[in-house]
Amino acid sequence: MIILQTQNFIHEASLSSLLSTLEKHAYLADETGQTQPESLRALRSSGLLGSIIPTEYGGKGETIWFASKLIEQLATVDPSIAIVVHQHLLVVTSLLNKGSEKQKRTYLPKLSSGEWIAASAWSETGSGAGKQTVGTKNDEGNWVINGVKTFTTGAGLADLYLVLVQTVSSDAGTEAAQHGQTFFLIEKEQVVAVDTQSGLSGMRGSSTRFIEFHRSVLTSDHILGEVGGSVELKIALRESGLTLGAISVGISEAAFRIALDYVERKGLAASQSLQVRLSELHMWIDAARALVDKVAERSSDNLKLSASQSKILASEVSEKVCREVQQIVGGTGYMRGHKIERLYRDARGVSLMGPVNYLAREMVGREIVSEPFRF
Amino acid sequence: MIILQTQNFIHEASLSSLLSTLEKHAYLADETGQTQPESLRALRSSGLLGSIIPTEYGGKGETIWFASKLIEQLATVDPSIAIVVHQHLLVVTSLLNKGSEKQKRTYLPKLSSGEWIAASAWSETGSGAGKQTVGTKNDEGNWVINGVKTFTTGAGLADLYLVLVQTVSSDAGTEAAQHGQTFFLIEKEQVVAVDTQSGLSGMRGSSTRFIEFHRSVLTSDHILGEVGGSVELKIALRESGLTLGAISVGISEAAFRIALDYVERKGLAASQSLQVRLSELHMWIDAARALVDKVAERSSDNLKLSASQSKILASEVSEKVCREVQQIVGGTGYMRGHKIERLYRDARGVSLMGPVNYLAREMVGREIVSEPFRF
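The joint structure predicted for all components is written out below.
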């Protein structure tokens, strides 16, 4: 684990202890569809949630690369918790990018200490470019938010939500609709998390649910960035170096280790056919991780494209690796309760997360032909 | 071109001038199977051949990463010359690793200035682990070398050859045979380059030929490293950061640009189908390059495996990219004289270069199951 050599705040023992707690409760989280309180407690007290927050706000001042490697490690034991952390750090990054000094002082210390967990709420069902979660100004000049968000990771367990709200009518055409969207920081008291059971196929410990806003009234202090400034913030996030690909790489690594352990335990190491299959899987993992690392280091020549590509590649590699490892392990790996069975379902989740891989390909393709291209 | 931002000795103008000379003569080199004198002259005078040689030996003291990016750039215009440079730098790296001070003082200044080009001669036809190029000691204590080497890149044009010679009988079994092999530095006067025409399908400007040794007599000063020390040197080269994958990445980039230019010129940029196909190719190139860069930076956690994987992945990606670009361009790209037709044949070459990709997969697979594994 490379992270243990470079960290300066999570000691090997405490990271190992967090990983072992997560591993222990991941099965029950998946089985019940409930994030386990023991996992959350261990996460909150780990110091990890403040990793990339500057020390002046109570954080550890680590780099995005560091956070990315940590998320990768978390995903080797519990991809659901890894995605919760990823979403938390996206909100943190947004605050660092666009937050007012007052917002930073209000939220970052709590998000650093683990007292608060943050979640993002962007998705809606079938709404296309325009959003149906609408914010309008009331007579006192405050904002009133109404609507429903789907697939909110950390719903119910988060203390702060970054919510994408339509603040200019979405009838104005696609581009105008997108530029009429605003991010709001909304505390849990104003949010209703709807489902209590997870209906997801995988990532069942991530508390990914619907949330609703019933006439939530917010002052302008809750706007992150400018009114209508959501596009700019989304671009900044895409180039932040945080990529969902890190989770997929962790899943792939965990799956690969399952195959390796199986081959050793069953005395199959001399099979050249298995050796070559392992070599093939290792190659894909190595490539996906190299691209994810390059994005996390922000050293790509075209960070915007590479960020999207890293998510597409790593998620599809992890699906392929999980499938092949399940083939190697055989029927046992098809049983609920076997880790590879869970990992395979979790792996599918990343390919479906926004932007879903086909949409991401369309975005990248459009950018390749329409912007001055550089390698 | 990232290289132009980081270089400290090749100015943008002189690199551009080298690339344009190479591009201009690459077609004729391919057509005739002869490395073109203009290309060689431009290469020798570029300063590039001494890039990674320390300044005390007349070089530029650049990193392997720098050399790797340069080779990638050369391959975008002429993969044949890129492979000549790659082989030259492998010999340079070997000298830096294992050369005596006397050998370094003798050879490195000439290899720095471009007065000399170096080549490697390892391969033999059908000889397996043991080599048929044999060195024996004569009564004066000198070595007498006899034998034939196949696929020697730069044969006939090189001034210095690094030659793998069997110095203990190869009848002693596979492992003993490999440990009975020694590298010799042999100057061109003692080497006969056999073919004068290239019979290769691609990489036809690389002067890759048979060479022969007819009772070449050499003092022990010509041994690089120890007698029987070839295995150690091969391992060091594998972990040097130089990977043939850099050439494949350059080929892929050049092919991709052909598709991009075609799509623009033909007014096809609005085709979403083409956009998505371009996005897919770009993703594979991005991944291959990320892995090659990681090897060149020597920042992989398992450099030995990643080095092999980078060559396998990048070469197969370049074949796929060339094929797809030929499909996009259509029949014109199937004509001799079209760059994509040449690049596709050149791309195949890297997959076949030693160790050929299937053998490399077997090596990696064996290492995965037999050594303590770490990601």
